[in-house]
Every structure is written in C-alpha cells, then in structure tokens.
Specification:
0% strand; single chain; 283 residues; mainly alpha
Amino acid sequence: MLRRAVLPTSVYPAVISEKKGTRTALTALALAVVFVLLILPLVTVFAAAFREGFWEYAGALFTPENLSAIRLTLIVAVISVPLNVLFGIAAAWAIAKFEFSGKRLLISLIDLPFSVSPVVSGLIFVLLFGVHGVFGPFLTAHDIRIIFAVPGIILTTIFVTFPFVARELIPLMQSQGNEEEEASLTLGANGWQTFLLITLPNIRWGLLFGVILLNARAMGEFGAVSVVSGHIRGLTTTMPLQVEILYNEYNFVGAFAVASLLGMLALVTLVLKALVEWKGKEE
C-alpha cells in the first residue's frame, strides 16, 4: 500500500515568503486602487450633490419626477426581491438535497443571468413581449402592455437578479448535508416542520446575505431596465435612469442628488453585509 510521506512542518515552504517591503508595496497598491476606483468616486458624488448647499440639494432631490423614480424603484424591489427569495430557496433546496435528472442543466440556467449582458437581457424581453415579438400580437389584442411599462421593468429586474439567493444558498446547503433533516423526519416531523425548524435556521445568515445583495442589485439595475423602460419620464424611469436623464440635461445637482441616494444604498448594503458576515462567523 502506498502511503503519503509525512514531512515535518519545517519542510513545507511558508505560505507567504515575500519580504516585508514587498508586502507593504502590494498592500499600498491595493489600497491606492480601492481609494481611486471606489472611495474617491463615492466622495465625489456626495460632494457634487451638496455643492450648492443642503436646501438646493433637497429642492433638486424632491421633485415630482424624482419622487416618481424613487417610488417606482421601491415598487420594483418590493416585488422582485420576495419572488427571487422564494425561487432561490426552492432551487437551492432541490439542488442541494435531491438527485434528479437535469440537475446540472438547472444549475447552468441559474447562472445564465450572470453570463449574459444586462442589455442583451433587456433585448430578450423586447423580442418576447414587444409589439413585433413572439407574444406581441396576443398582448396587443388583449390590450396588455409589458414593454415600455412597469411590468417589463419588473420582469427584467427579476431576470437579472435571479441567481443571487440561489447561488448563496446552494454551497451552504451542500456543505451542511442532510443528516439533521433526516433525523427530524425520522422523529416524525413533516416536510414543512423540518424546513422551518431545521433547514431555515441553519441557512438564515446566508439567506440574509443573499437578500442584501439581491436588493442592492434590484434597486441599482440600469442596463436591462433601460432597454425595456422606454425612458418615459414620471412613469417608467427608475432612479438609475433618472440620474442619466438629469445628467444629460446638465442638471448636475439633481443628477448627483439622486445618485447620492444610490450611494447611500451602497453604503448601507456594505454595512449590513459586514454585519451579517461577522454575525455568521461568530455563530
């Protein structure tokens, strides 16, 4: 029988063997890139938004069109996030707990929105539900409007945010195994009781982490929503689209005021993400 030779620890090379100067230089380079590409743009957005003072900021932010964009963004998030949470939990449960034909295909399809450009995603829905699309004649005959309307924005947002919860839960559930669920079923619990009392508590931090990322993407999506929205001011413009419209009209204070809300959303997302990661590791 062949056995792997057990070498003393001193024989293995150190994982990090670079000199202190090299490590310091690499760390400084990484911090400089983070500052230039992440922190500086975020600071610039807030500086430009408050450049004329707080009251100018408030006046530029709380216009009827901006409020409509904020309201539509929240509506899209309120609808798309719960639907994708339900889908993500169901898909992760099926993939992690059961063996069935087509499992690899399902995993690949879940990753599809990650591999397709958001603009292409929007074009797919135009080809399906547009006037000249596959379902166009049927929708027109029944006076149903999806493209250049709110339903199209919701559908595209659901599509591009499809994988976030599922991709967070699948490896977590696979690593936890089935022993606890099998023990629960053996003791007489039904499927729902096992899910609510055993599975859900075990995945709660991963699920919350996925929901935070999902919500941030749903509220900040631009490419796919831009294609299907039609940019109808006050009706089909979300916050990212409203930023583009105001900037193109040289209304810089208004554009950066709306952008500052998205910046605040990013900061809140980062804080919540860090708290969830810390709490999950602590437990």
